[in-house]
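Q: I'm building a small set of examples for a reading group on sequence design. Run inverse folding on the following structure and report the sequence directly after it, with nothing in between.
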């Protein structure tokens, strides 16, 4: 049976082109444009592999991966991203990813990564691998990510995307007051003195670009 794949990327033209290429070897069962849709699609289609961007609306690829790890059905996760950042690559593997591929890589490299994860191996783009080894030798901590809960990271991403308190409350099924409480709690945790500094933390955490 063909390997079943879900593609998650909010750049429609890129996603469509990728699906056209993948269809030659894989069964692409769905294309989604945000992290929450990815979770719903994974639950519905039970893909073998998810190919996801990191920065997406509503929920990042990292948050989606964290949620998939807790789900009853967990596909292999390939992060396909423009962020050539070894520290971010490590975070992706910590979230349950099996491969981290730079979008500047060739299509052939993506196929190599997919073959690796289907065979239960990990893959990291060579252009990032040297820095990743350095991180293993001289580890750092993702302090911001570790201090915030999954719900807080979700709210922070929505806030950084420019959503109002009312819009965030609607998207997260929370009251506006609860969203405001989370915002000010995050400001205390992260040491942010204003909304602009809070958004800066969201950018550093790669929740938005």
């Amino acid at each position: 049976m063909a390997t079943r794949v879900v593609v998650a990327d909010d750049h429609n033209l890129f996603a469509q082109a990728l699906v056209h290429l993948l269809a030659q070897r894989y069964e692409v069962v769905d294309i989604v444009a945000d992290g929450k849709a990815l979770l719903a699609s994974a639950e519905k289609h039970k893909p073998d592999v998810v190919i996801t961007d990191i920065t997406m609306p509503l929920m990042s690829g990292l948050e989606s991966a964290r949620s998939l790890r807790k789900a009853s059905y967990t596909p292999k996760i390939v992060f396909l991203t423009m962020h050539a950042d070894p520290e971010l690559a490590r975070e992706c593997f910590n979230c349950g990813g099996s491969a981290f591929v730079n979008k500047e890589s060739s299509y052939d490299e993506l196929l190599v990564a997919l073959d690796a994860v289907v065979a239960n191996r990990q893959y990291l783009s060579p252009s990032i691998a040297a820095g990743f080894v350095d991180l293993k030798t001289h580890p750092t901590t993702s302090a911001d990510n570790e201090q915030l809960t999954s719900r807080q990271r979700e709210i922070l991403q929505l806030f950084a995307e420019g959503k109002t308190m009312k819009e965030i409350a609607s998207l997260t099924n929370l009251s506006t007051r609860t969203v405001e409480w989370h915002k000010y709690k995050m400001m205390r945790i992260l040491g942010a003195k204003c909304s602009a500094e809070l958004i800066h933390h969201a950018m550093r955490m790669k929740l938005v670009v």
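The longest helix spans residues 176-190.
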